[in-house]
Write a structure and sequence with these properties.
Elements: H1 4-50, E1 59-62, E2 79-82, H2 104-111, E3 123-128, E4 139-145, E5 154-158, E6 166-168, E7 174-180, E8 183-188, E9 197-204, E10 215-218, E11 221-222, E12 224-225
Parallel strand pairs: 3-12
Antiparallel strand pairs: 1-2, 3-4, 4-9, 5-8, 5-10, 6-9, 7-8, 10-11
Length: 226
């Protein structure tokens, strides 16, 4: 009876049965590795999808310093500036407030210009009436230069309409001109120096030196009469 072949077949079957658990274990390990790789890949894909995308920068128009007060900025003058993230409350530091040291009232007062002092008349005159009669005292006209420089002078006298003559006792350097209707103009042929004075003796009409003028001015300023 042939025992050998049957025994060989039984041993092969036993070997196959003995190696089956290892094959199952190996297949299980491969399946676990595949599942682990798939899980890792899906987790990374979800992380990339869940990451927020960076928002595009926002640009705001800024008005240039040279823009006119009446019109808006031109398109060429608009600048683009990205908005920076706001600092946290902990990083903010309060800025010191500026203190006002001067008062606006004092600044306005100092800016005002002081009014100019009125200018005094550089030359003055006084008319003193004489006495009546051909031999009476002549009228006296006193002229004084109270300024610090030489000035030209002109005296205008107005009497009654019937006064048609006016004579100067010392006519050197004095010009007399009649306008008619009792008006006469006396002017110096040379300037009166600073601080100097001059006295003129006048004969009004024919022996009427006591004639009081209706008007007396020197360089447009009223004279003193009396």
């Amino acid at each position: 009876m042939a025992v050998g072949p049957d025994g060989a077949a039984g041993s092969r079957a036993a070997r196959v049965l003995a190696s089956v658990p290892w094959i199952v274990v190996l297949l299980g390990v491969c399946a676990l590795v595949v599942l682990l790789v798939v899980a890792l890949l899906s987790f990374r894909t979800r992380e990339r999808d869940a990451a927020p995308q960076a928002a595009p920068p926002v640009f705001l128009p800024t008005v240039p310093a040279a823009a006119s007060a009446t019109g808006g900025p031109t398109p060429a003058g608009v600048e683009r500036r990205s908005v920076s993230p706001r600092p946290s409350r902990s990083s903010r530091t309060p800025s010191p407030r500026a203190t006002v040291t001067g008062s606006p009232t004092s600044d306005r007062t100092s800016a005002l210009v002081a009014p100019a002092a009125p200018m005094e008349d550089p030359v003055s005159a006084r008319y003193q009436v004489g006495t009546n009669g051909r031999d009476g005292d002549a009228a006296v006209l006193s002229i004084a230069n109270e300024s610090g420089q030489s000035v030209d002078w002109q005296v205008e006298l107005a009497f009654d309409d019937d006064t048609w003559a006016l004579r100067v006792g010392d006519d050197s350097g004095v010009s007399v001109r009649g306008r008619g209707h009792g008006e006469f103009v006396l002017s110096g042929t040379r300037s009166l120096k600073a601080g100097d004075s001059r006295t003129l003796r006048l004969r009004v009409g024919w022996g009427r030196s006591a004639e009081r003028p209706l008007r007396c001015t020197i360089n447009g300023v009223d004279c003193r009469i009396g």
